[in-house]
Amino acid sequence: MASSSSDGIPLLVILTDISGQEITKGTWHGHCKAHELFQAAYKSKPGFLCKLLHGKEELSPQRDLASLCQSVVRLTVVWLRGDGQDKLVATHHSRAFAAIKSDGSVVTWGDADEGGDSSQVEHRLQEGVVQVVGNGLAFAAVRSDGSVVTWGDSDKGGDSSHVEHRLQEDVVQVVGNETVFAAVRSDGSVITWGDADYGGDSSHVEHRLQEDVVQVVGNAWAFAAVRSDGSVVTWGDDDEGGDSSIVEHRLQEGVVQVVGNGAAFAAVKSDGSVIAWGNADFGGDTSRVEHRLQEGVVQVVGNGSAFAAVKSDGSVITWGDADAGGNSSRYEHRLQEGIIGVVS
């Protein structure tokens, strides 16, 4: 494995699975980010996603390796895909299903034009599939060799022929919005296809999507990518989160999580503050609660049109569509302390 050639304190890092079996090892330097270790894990098992644990602590991709304070570091890789169980994939508005079987094959049914008919790519869905993503009108499957297979509505991501040469290997994750797919490769680059207006065309930010992307999140009409330096890149429908220029100065570093809902995004920074952008009615405007989002936030969750943030003191702050949970004043007395998590 290639080692970092930059100056700094060398660390021997050993990645093992949960059984203790060694996956890979190599030498990195203290100023490197944990993102590089995620990439090493992905290369050992293309098409799978993972978490990295240092003891019981989950590492963020933006974590500096020097902070681990050891010359020999043992990390546990917890794989999040390919667990050997059949999976059923569909979105809430989909008219088709795709089922992943334990042998890595895929079975589809439902509306033929929206992904229920996969006969044209059936020969590539017989084995080795580790992830299938649906956007409501099409599906994309990631195979164990890192290649991607698509089918369904050709204008909404079912046809990936114009980027097919870039989807032949090394894809570790595919994310969809309503009409587009985005694929993250093991080198941290991003490929997009589908409806150009809603993120299928990422050419205007392509120079920032060539490397070092560690997370891509979609809302219904746009995408946000977090890079290993903690900066954020956005594209898609400008009014629904694709244009983050109004908060761009706050998205240059320190972002550790981005969450999307129907038409907005919220980013959590390493200092516990939250930045939001996109459709104001969906939570893109936090001005009503901004004073409570300056520090201490440990989790943000989105539903269709609102957000909820959990703070380290166990309190919850909400914003966005009042009728969808953006106004929690009726329950505020019960949300002041003791909350350990929120789901939607």
TrEMBL record:
Keywords: Repeat
InterPro entries attached to this UniProt entry: RCC1/BLIP-II, Signaling_Regulatory_Domain
Matches recorded under Gene3D superfamilies: Regulator of chromosome condensation 1/beta-lactamase-inhibitor protein II
Domain of life per record: Eukaryota
Protein name, as recorded: Uncharacterized protein
